[in-house]
Every structure is written in C-alpha cells, then in structure tokens.
Structure prediction request, 165 residues.
Amino acid sequence: MLTKEQLKRLNDQVNREASVSRAYLAVSCWAASKGLDGVARFFKGHHEEEEEHMHKIENYIISTGGKVVIGAIEAPPSEFKDVLSVLKMALKKEIEISSSINEMVYLFLEEKNYSTFNFLQWFVAEQHQEEHLFRSLIEKAELIGTDKKGLFWIDKELKNMSLNK
Ligand code: FEO
Prediction:
C-alpha cells in the first residue's frame, strides 16, 4: 500500500523514464537519417530499455493496488550537433534519473516502506551501469576524436555493443 505522496513519486518516475525513452528514440532516428547505423541501433536499444523501466514501475504500482497516471511529456529535439554531444546528453539524463531514484530510495527507507525500497534496488544497480557506460563512451570518443575516422570507430563500436547484448 502506497501513500498518496509515494504514489505520486512513482508516477513521476514513470514519466521521467518515458521522457528519456523518447529522447533516445529521437537520437536513434536522427542518427539513422545521417547514415550512422551503429549509433541508431544503440540508441534504439536504449529507447527500448527505458520503455521496459517504465513498464516495470507501472506494473509495480498496479501490484500495490495503486493507480498509474500517464502524464504528458515534452517533445525531444529532432536535431543534434554530433555524436559526442548526444553521448553527453545521455549521460546528463542518466545522472538526473539516478538522482530521482536515489531520492526515492531515501524516502521509502525513511518511511519504512521496505517493499518499495527493495523494488528500487534494481534501478540503483541499473543506473550505476548506465552512467558507467555513457561515461566510458565519452572518454573513448574524446580520446579518439570525432573526425571522420573517430566517427567511423564510434559507429562501429556502438553497433558491436548492440549486436553483443
Ligand atoms: Fe531508466 Fe536509464 O534510466
């Protein structure tokens, strides 16, 4: 059983996951239109992962007898500067998501809602991985550079990562 405020926090998180999901879909479509198939595939996969996160929270809310409220989300941009800026945007979004998850973890522990606290542990681990992934990709991209050769490498690397998932 969730309090009104707890339910609101979880529904807000559904919206945040939906917002990130749309942003990654927009990046995927942009990359595909530029012929960057690896980048497109990688972000399509991440779009799908974010959809799964959203559904996980929806299902959890329903399992507690709570009501899921799907809210409006702002449209993401359809144009991006380059691949490095897209990776940096993704890291920023993941850090924001981690922060909201951490705030919820604190709240649910404080309020002795151990079931939801436990449910959120999966997201804590997932966020750690996501932040690490984007951070390491940015470091590599900065090291190699984003000229034509660098771009070719990033696209290939992201394609391989998508195929090996
Ligand atoms: Fe579901 Fe990557 O945040």
Remarks:
- The CA atoms of residues 30 and 78 lie 7 Å apart.
- The pocket of MU-OXO-diiron is lined by residues 17, 20, 50, 53, 94, 97, 130 (CB under 6 Å).
